[in-house]
Amino acid sequence: MEKRRPIRGASVAAKDSCVYVWASSTVHLSHDNGANWQTIQDPLFGQASHNTLVLFEDNVLVGGSTGVVKSSDRGLSWADFSDGLPKDADGNLYTVADLVRDNTYLYAVTSQSIAGIYRRPLAELPVSTRPAASAMPIKVFPNPVSGNKINLQLPENAPAGISVRLFDPTGRLLCTLALANGANTLDINGLAAGVYALQVLQGSGSSFEKIIVQH
Q1: CA-CA to 94 of 20 to 30 Å: which in 12, 130, 177, 205?
Q2: From its phi and psi, is residue 4 left (phi > 0), alpha (psi between -120 and 50) or beta?
Q3: Would you state the torsion angle of the CA atoms of residues 19, 30, 200, 45, taken in this order, to the nearest 10 degrees?
């Protein structure tokens, strides 16, 4: 076994080339089989005393002191998914100690003195219609890049509505660019050397491209 990420007390799941680790109110995310990592923190995570994580389609669900939180874009943005969970006398959601799923329901186990198991239909989550990365009609070059811009080339007959989002190595969104058919450029002047994630969005689908910035 090859050690890729020193994290304690974690829950981990993987699908395709994506690896998700949930530990200490932080999601550690890799889109390239653990070679490079982004660290994502969100106010919705709260102060997690338990770490539990499951995957369904392109949805990532984590449980902790703020109930259940889900991402439908491979870990880049998060929303509450706690409808139906009980609250204590102060209005705080019960802490979720464990999450499991079958093909129909998500089950959440609470850890309060009156523990319980609660379920929610997985049909309420978005179902992936993400096309394969190879189906995205875009060329990204040069990569690695040492200059101040990245070229993004679309075919002249590409469908309308394609855009890109660039994320830094910590998962922070840097910019969004709507693309026109033909040649486009993305300004990366001032970016530090490192590995960045370029998300290509087309309709309800998306793919990711690793961008290596060198100086």
Answers
A1: 12
A2: alpha
A3: 80
